[in-house]
Amino acid sequence: MTIRHVIVGLAAFAALAAAAAQTRIAGRVVEKGGECLPYATVKVKNRYLGAVADSVGLFEIQGAMAASDTVVVSYMGFRTRKLLVAELGVSDSTVSLVEMESAPVPLPEVAVRPGKRKTVKYGKKHGTGMLSADYTAEAGLCTGFETKAGKGRTMWLDAVGFYIKEIPGMLSSMKFRINIYDMAGVTREPTDEFADALVGQIYFDYDKADVVDGRYTWYLPEMMRLPEHAMVEIEFLENRKNEAIVFKCNLLGKNSWIREHDEYFWCTCPIATPFFVSCIEN
Questions:
Q1: Domain edges within the chain
Q2: Residue 42 in contact with residue 53, Cβ under 8 Å?
């Protein structure tokens, strides 16, 4: 390799570094009229960077990104918004306003038809476990379960929850979101199809006072009909890194997947899961 080749190579590397420099972007997600959209999902496309907005719609992302990179903002019931990093402003103080346009979505059915019913459970089945795991509660971390209804039958989401080890100083409360996707046509390659495949979101609050024998269960007010082939995700909505939460886990089944807020694909979870999903098939 000649000196000229080395110089050219270093110049190209410097250009790439400049194109994707350490950058901070921040914003507030609102609907027309200024009302905040809490817990909106924000991603920098192809950069594995992202965030979940807080309870008043504020988000902040720091990392290597270029001014020409695309930021994708999504929220159930609103059209997905795509902006350039440069449009959000790159500085330590700028907080840009991201206005979303409403897009009505069909409401899923919430009544179970009469007939023979069967309970189908995914994830952890009981309180005994092979191990315990300390989880860092990080907004945007998701654990998902694929569901498939039998031929001529319908699957309804009834409850979600997890098993937890009760310890002194344990996490007392936490906000979660259930994301429901129609998996028809969705691949597990890196993709931005998730926003289009999202057909339902439900929010719930964990309270340690509701833990019974190490199990926390949240029942939907009314059961929700799932697509024939669905993905049901349980997503953390808050960063609570200074509070202890120890889940009771066992090894994953074949229907368990994990996804982080900054990823565009699901993958088999390499760790154990404490979560479960309970459905009714009829």
A1: 3-100, 118-281
A2: yes
Would the pTM of this model clear 0.85, i.e. be above it?
no
| Alpha carbon distance 26, 256 (integer Å) | 33
- 192-213 core/surface letters (b: 16 or more CB in 10 A; e: else): bebbebbbbbbebebeeeebee
Please name the residue that has the structure tokens 């031929």: 151
- The pLDDT, as a whole number, for residue 125 is 73
Q: In this structure, are residues 138 and 51 in contact, taking their beta carbons and an 8 Å threshold? A: no
- 31-39 — which CB contacts under 8 Å span 24+ positions? 31/78, 31/99, 31/100, 31/102, 32/99, 32/100, 32/101, 32/102, 37/75, 37/78, 37/100, 39/175, 39/177, 39/203, 39/237
96-100/21-31 β-pairing: parallel
CATH architecture of 3-100: Sandwich (2.60)
Name the E strands within 38-152: 41-44, 49-52, 58-65, 70-74, 81-84, 96-100, 118-123, 131-134, 142-148
Q: Which of 146, 157, 135, 139 is nearest to 266 (CA)?
A: 146
Give the angle subtended at the CA of 257 by the CAs of 252 and 263, to the nearest 5°: 145
Nearest partner of 176 among 282, 52, 69, judged by Cα? 52
Name the CATH code of domain 118-281 (choices 2.60.120, 2.40.10, 3.30.390, 2.60.40). Answer: 2.60.120
Task: Please list the rounded mean pLDDT of every run of 10 residues in the chain (282 residues).
Answer: 42 47 88 93 86 93 91 90 87 83 71 69 71 70 86 92 83 90 76 75 93 92 92 87 72 58 60 82 90
The SS3 of residue 9 is helix
